[in-house]
Amino acid sequence: MAAELIDGKAIAAKVRGEVAEKVRAFQAAHGRAPGLAVVRVGHDPASEVYVRGKIKASGETGMVSEEHHLPEDASTSEVLAAVERLNADPKIDGILVQLPLPKQVDEQTVLDAIAPAKDVDGFHLINAGKLLSGRKDGVRACTPFGIMRLLREAGCDPAGKRAVVIGRSNIVGKPMALLLLEANATVTVCHSRTRDLAEEVARADIVVAAIGRPELVRGAWIREGAYVIDVGMNRLESGKLVGDVEFAAAAQRAAAITPVPGGVGPMTIAMLLSNTVDAANARIAAK
Ligand SMILES: Nc1nc2c(c(=O)[nH]1)N[C@@H](CN(C=O)c1ccc(C(=O)N[C@@H](CCC(=O)O)C(=O)O)cc1)CN2
Ligand SMILES: [Mg+2]
């Protein structure tokens, strides 16, 4: 393997250390720890694991966290009522609603009900709009924000580079493209209808794959010396977890690449904690 491995686990541990330092300072100044509330609806097994990870990691930084679990058949109004209670709770600085939600729940209505100042996932329309309009005071979505940190730690300055983002979801692809643009990259967003994905990828100095198709991005497409970030998490029938990039072949050509697992995933949780302590400080400053 020629490429440097971008170790998301190690970088996430470093971010958590920085967050713990900020939590100590917050506690000393305000006599309480920042508070995070996680709303989980139903019994999605992966969500159970991720939420447990979020609660555990927040506790390890010294934050206070609580999980609010609603039944599988909860209505949009019931989820909204839980969010409203948390919006009004002065001990809570950050709220997130774990996705996906059961199909009867209107996801965007729920996300837009979270007070923007407590929206530590950065999915509220106001925070998405602030990112779009170049405002620095909004909350940035955790996965793309974590990827910007991974690139920085790998020594990649996106300014002037060609970046290709594969995937156009609201939680990864679109905010990723905007963060790369903010960092002065020349950004192309590709998706399932892109005519020649191989050609687009071959031109890219930075590739962010977030399309959810196992090993769609072939190693031979990667430009020599590119930075490759794999957001994909695809569980094969064999039980093996693979990304959206053909890892071994891509690593022969890339300058640096993230593994799956142990790349982007751990950063999502670390950046959530970072957003929460920042939200706690911003709420105090706004009083
Ligand atoms: N409200 C939110 N919902 C969801 C988000 C989100 O950011 N906010 N992102 C994903 C799930 N997610 C966090 O919530 C998440 C996914 C994966 C990982 C992770 O560390 N993955 C491991 C591999 C895990 C495995 O073996 O299955 C890794 O990549 O190393 C962390 C967080 C959707 N929902
Ligand atoms: Mg729905």
UniProtKB/TrEMBL annotation:
Protein's GO biological process: L-histidine biosynthetic process; methionine biosynthetic process; purine nucleotide biosynthetic process; tetrahydrofolate interconversion
Function: Catalyzes the oxidation of 5,10-methylenetetrahydrofolate to 5,10-methenyltetrahydrofolate and then the hydrolysis of 5,10-methenyltetrahydrofolate to 10-formyltetrahydrofolate.
Keywords: Amino-acid biosynthesis, Histidine biosynthesis, Hydrolase, Methionine biosynthesis, Multifunctional enzyme, NADP, One-carbon metabolism, Oxidoreductase, Purine biosynthesis
InterPro entries: Aminoacid_DH-like_N_sf, NAD(P)-bd_dom_sf, THF_DH/CycHdrlase, THF_DH/CycHdrlase_cat_dom, THF_DH/CycHdrlase_CS, THF_DH/CycHdrlase_NAD-bd_dom
Cited PANTHER family: C-1-TETRAHYDROFOLATE SYNTHASE, CYTOPLASMIC, C-1-TETRAHYDROFOLATE SYNTHASE, CYTOPLASMIC-RELATED
Complex and partners: Homodimer.
Classification via Pfam families: THF_DHG_CYH, THF_DHG_CYH_C
Secretion signal, residue range per the UniProt entry: none
Domain (Tetrahydrofolate dehydrogenase/cyclohydrolase NAD(P)-binding): residue spans on this chain: 141-282
Family: Belongs to the tetrahydrofolate dehydrogenase/cyclohydrolase family.
Keyword Amino-acid biosynthesis: yes
Domain Tetrahydrofolate dehydrogenase/cyclohydrolase catalytic: 6-121
Catalyzed reactions per annotation: (6R)-5,10-methenyltetrahydrofolate + H2O = (6R)-10-formyltetrahydrofolate + H(+); (6R)-5,10-methylene-5,6,7,8-tetrahydrofolate + NADP(+) = (6R)-5,10-methenyltetrahydrofolate + NADPH
This enzyme's EC code(s): 1.5.1.5, 3.5.4.9
Gene Ontology cellular component terms for the protein in this record: cytosol
Residues noted as binding NADP(+) in the record, renumbered to the chain: 167-169
Species per Swiss-Prot/TrEMBL record: Vulgatibacter incomptus
Gene Ontology MF terms: methenyltetrahydrofolate cyclohydrolase activity; methylenetetrahydrofolate dehydrogenase (NADP+) activity
Pathway: One-carbon metabolism; tetrahydrofolate interconversion
Protein known as: Bifunctional protein FolD
